[in-house]
Amino acid sequence: MQVxxxxxxxxxxxxxxxxxxxxxxxxxxxxxxxxxxHDITVLFYxxxxxxxxxxxxxxxxxxxxxxxxxxxxxxxxxxVGDFHVELIET
Length: 90
Known about the structure:
Number of helices: 1
Strand order of the largest sheet: 2-1-5-6-7-4-3
């Protein structure tokens, strides 16, 4: 599934839309390569995003609710890490 976070395309392996305290919560699981690591982490430092999921007709403003990664050294060429991010509507 294709998800855009601040216009950055992320190919997501798993997606779930739930409710949390009367707000939409978008859960995303995806893999990040050594080559993409820097761009993804810099993006997540922004914390406030516009998320678009065209296939689900979602286009909304969100912030990070929860975020964690696998314990993978992505500074090593060829490594791939698992990322999980939960975005809550603002």
